[in-house]
Amino acid sequence: MISRSKAFFYLVLLILFSPPVLAQDKRLDEGANVVRLAPASFKELPLLVVADLEARQCTIPQTFTKREPHNVVSGSFIKRGEVDWAILCSRNGVSTILVYPSGRVQSVHELGTGSDDGYLQVIDGEGTIGFSRKIDRASIDYVKRRLPPSVPTTSIDKDGIEDIFVEKASVIRYLYRGEWTEFMGLD
Q1: Largest alpha-carbon pair distance within the chain?
Q2: Per-residue pLDDT tens digits for 57-87
Q3: 176 near 151, Cβ under 8 Å?
Q4: Could you tell me what percent of the chain has a pLDDT over 90?
Q5: Strand 60-61 relative to strand 72-75: parallel, antiparallel, unpaired?
Q6: What is the pLDDT of residues 100-110, one digit of tens each?
Q7: What domain range includes position 31?
Q8: CA-CA distance, 64 to 120, in Å (whole number)?
Q9: What total number of domains does the chain contain?
Q10: Residues 67, 54: contact at Cβ < 8 Å?
């Protein structure tokens, strides 16, 4: 049975991430000019990760808010002290966060799959449409501040991944006891 707080959390997520923006402007799918970068554009990525992303036919979508390349982050997401890579991979209109443990291409974790159209929004008074999904590293301290009461702060020993709907809300994805969990980030 699902708790009331968890049900409320999922209801809020459903409201925030459902497509009412699409109903406001029927031109969203027509007028969006989403910049998508090739994996090789990110020189900091290990070459094996770049090759795997290319084999998966991934591009890395860019938000309307940042000028420098983004949606590729490193951190200790799987095990403290390791350098893991999280990439927002878009293919065929669907984005997924891919997490490469220690930069290895075996056992890649796939999180937060969603339609790219769901992250389009009107970004100005002129009807300009922008892509609005972004990922960032959520530091240990940040994760501890955003934890639900059911998770003890002493169990947090690595970074999380903040999955952001720009100017709306965010979800933190955290590997807890071998399972990826989600909890509210900023709202």
Answers
A1: 48
A2: 999 999 998 789 999 999 999 999 999 999 9
A3: yes
A4: 71
A5: unpaired
A6: 999 999 999 99
A7: 4-184
A8: 10
A9: 1
A10: no
